[in-house]
C-alpha cells in the first residue's frame, strides 16, 4: 500500500510539473512572441495586428492562472504574516491547516458552477480569432483544481509536522 501511494504521488507530481511548468513556459513564450511581433508590425511596418493582440491577451490570462498554483506549490505567494510568524509553530500549523481547509472547501463548492459557466461560454467566440470562450477560460477551473491539489498537499505536510514534530523537506523554488 505504501508503494502504491509512493508511485501515485510521483505520477501526480510529474503531471503537475508538466502542466504548471511547461504550460506556463509555453504560454509565457507565446505572450513574449506575440508582443514582440506586435511591436515590430506596429512600429516598423505601421500595420498593427489585432490577431496578435488577442493572442497576447489570452496568453497572459493563461500564464497568470497557471503561475498562481505553481507559486502555491512552493508556498511563495506574498503574505502579510508579521503577527502569524510571532505565534508558536503549532499554532501556525493549526491556523494554516484551517485556512487551507476553508480555501479547499470554497474551491470544491465553486468548481461546478464555474465549470457550468465556462462550458456555457462555447456559444461566445473571441472577437478576432473566433475561438470559443470555453477554450480561452478553461484555465480558471484548471487553476482551481491545481490550487486544490497543492492545498491538500500542504494540509498533509502540516498535519505530519504537527503530529510528528518534524518538518518535511521543502522543494526548492526554481527561481531562487
TrEMBL record:
Assigned keywords, A-Z: Cell inner membrane, Cell membrane, Membrane, Transmembrane, Transmembrane helix, Transport
Transmembrane segments: 21-43, 55-72, 93-115, 135-156
Keyword Acetylation: no
InterPro entries recorded: DctQ (IPR055348), TRAP_DctQ (IPR007387)
GO cellular component, one term: plasma membrane
Main location: membrane
All residue ranges annotated as the Tripartite ATP-independent periplasmic transporters DctQ component domain in the record: 31-156
Signal sequence extent: none
Any one Gene Ontology BP term: C4-dicarboxylate transport
One GO MF term: transmembrane transporter activity
Membrane topology reported for the UniProt record: Multi-pass membrane protein
Subcellular location: Cell inner membrane
Membership in a protein family: Belongs to the TRAP transporter small permease family.
Protein name: Tripartite ATP-independent periplasmic transporter DctQ component
Native source organism of the sequence: Mesotoga infera
Lineage of producing organism: Bacteria, Thermotogati, Thermotogota, Thermotogae, Kosmotogales
Amino acid at each position: 500500500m505504501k508503494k502504491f501511494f509512493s508511485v501515485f504521488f510521483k505520477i501526480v507530481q510529474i503531471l503537475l510539473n508538466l502542466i504548471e511548468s511547461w504550460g506556463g513556459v509555453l504560454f509565457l513564450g507565446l505572450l513574449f512572441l506575440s508582443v514582440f511581433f506586435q511591436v515590430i508590425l506596429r512600429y516598423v511596418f505601421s500595420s498593427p495586428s489585432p490577431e496578435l493582440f488577442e493572442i497576447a491577451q489570452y496568453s497572459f490570462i493563461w500564464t497568470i492562472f497557471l503561475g498562481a498554483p505553481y507559486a502555491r506549490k512552493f508556498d511563495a505567494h506574498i503574505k502579510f504574516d508579521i503577527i502569524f510568524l510571532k505565534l508558536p509553530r503549532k499554532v501556525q500549523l493549526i491556523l494554516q491547516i484551517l485556512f487551507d481547509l476553508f480555501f479547499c472547501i470554497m474551491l470544491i463548492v465553486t468548481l461546478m458552477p464555474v465549470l457550468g459557466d465556462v462550458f456555457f461560454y462555447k456559444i461566445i467566440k473571441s472577437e478576432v480569432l473566433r475561438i470559443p470562450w470555453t477554450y480561452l477560460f478553461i484555465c480558471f477551473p484548471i487553476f482551481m483544481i491545481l490550487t486544490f491539489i497543492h492545498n491538500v498537499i500542504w494540509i498533509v505536510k502540516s498535519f505530519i509536522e504537527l503530529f510528528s514534530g518534524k518538518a518535511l523537506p521543502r522543494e526548492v523554488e526554481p527561481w531562487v
